Amino acid sequence: MIPTVDIGAFLEAVQKEGGENAETVVSLAQNQPEVKKIARIVHDAISEYGFCFFTNHRVPENVLDRAFSTSKQFYELDVKVKEKYARGHLDCHGWSGLEKEMLLNDRKIGDMKESFNFTPGAPTVMMPNEVPDLIQSYDDMFHSFQELSLRVFDLIGIALELEDPTLLSKTHKLIGQKGNHTTMRSLYYPPYPLKEGQLHCGEHHDYGSISLLFMDDVGGLQILEKDGEYHDVTPVPGAVMIFVGDMLQRWTADRYPATKHRVVIPTRVMEQGRTRQSMAFFCVPDDDTLITCLDGSNKYPPVTAYDRLMSIFAATKY
Fold it and tell me: Rounded to whole angstroms, how far apart are CA atoms 122 and 178?
């Protein structure tokens, strides 16, 4: 079972300390007994699984509900309308249709899902005017994700006992701006039957530093555990799921694993005509960040975030 961690006391401690110097604020907060306890639990969880759930994350419920609602309105549009907003192979923004994407796997058939990638202010973004509230709902959701992700990086910095616990958040300071490729993705799984060998989302590990995920109650997410088998993840109502990505695994010299996962929605759910939705936030360090093993082991050669990202994109079949 994926651990669930209440991070409310950590967020409260950081807010209570206040001040303009983030490093000082987090350093003061990390000395509080409750914060130390939370950091230990997080460390143990993501060392073991590469995942955990966070509750009391302070993402407003109305922001999340609106993002899910407007997304569904878009996905229910005619496919010819959605095609106006399609993205290309190396273009991170816009809509991707059914069976268009194969992640880091060797299957020969695309995933049974649709998605829409969004980054505020990106020059290639065309936002559907058929859903008038979509751009505002996505913008609000993106910034809620952004604020949470920076606090999560600080918490991980404490968990890793870094000399500067804000090191990771400092290397993501350009999220939402030029020079950083962090992307928010809305995902939609329609109740269509699968072809032989097809999955709703193929087995893969995430490519950035961390990913944040909100999902509905439909289920279907599975993770590859140490026994070599995929196991179902039961959604935790209102919680956000944290994934370790490829770049954090490299940073920590495998101390935090980027665990493979996939989506396989139960047949009974699909037969009921239920759709599945999720909202993901793929955090990537600023382009010029040099990722080196924090323990000094050189287990992985140094690489910039941008170069590592481009190499992974090149391996994604689209």
Answer: 8
| Rounded average pLDDT per 10-residue block, the chain, 318 residues | 93 77 76 93 96 97 98 96 81 86 68 93 72 93 97 95 93 95 96 88 92 96 93 96 97 96 89 94 97 94 94 66
Cα dist from 292 to 60, 257, 299, whole Å: 35, 16, 9
Chain-centroid distance, C-alpha 10: 21
Backbone conformation region of residue 21, classed left if phi is above 0, alpha if psi is from -120 to 50, else beta: beta
Structure confidence at residue 124 (pLDDT): 56
Reference 246, options 262, 259, 234, 235; nearest CA is: 259
| Three-state DSSP state, 286 | strand
In eight-state DSSP terms, residue 137 is H
Sign of the torsion angle spanned by Cα atoms 8, 10, 13, 17: negative
Q: Residue 244 and residue 203: Cα distance in Å, rounded? A: 15
What separation, in Å, do the N-terminal and C-terminal C-alpha atoms of the chain show? 33
- Pick the closest to residue 215 from 195, 235, 245, 197 (CA basis): 235
Count, in order, helices (H) and strands (E) of the chain: 10, 14
pTM of the model: 0.94
